[in-house]
Amino acid sequence: MFADFLKNLVAPEPEPLNDSDARLALSALLVRLARTDGEYSVSEAARIESIISARYGLSTTDARSLRGEAETLESEAPDTVRFTRAIKDAVAYEDRIGVIEALWKVALADGARDAEEDALIRLAASLLGVNDVDSAKARQRVANAG
């Protein structure tokens, strides 16, 4: 189902993602983060749906469907580097900061910080080209909104 999408991600010079594929890549990155600690909770899945619904103006049904596609893609996809590279190429810097905020929302959805999730967010921020200061501010905004 995702063969062409994955083929593009692993290409030496991938084509920029269209809006639909960028949504899918971001959603799959959120799923990857949620699964990082070995527990993909109902609250994390609900938080992912909430994030993608708000970010893309999707109905609850459409957000749930996109999350389901993202779960499948995440399980078939090779690595986090290619997800983030695809997102970086498709998304403006300010919006990439929003991606970091979305990752923190998922990481904190279960009420606990996990070292593996923290490490994945640090990696994603670096690969997205989001500097440490903006990444820290994104985490603080999410934690304070809480």
TrEMBL record:
Residues 23-140 form the Co-chaperone DjlA N-terminal domain. It comes from Roseovarius phycicola. It comes from the Bacteria. Pfam families: TerB. This is TerB family tellurite resistance protein. InterPro entries: DjlA_N, TerB-like.
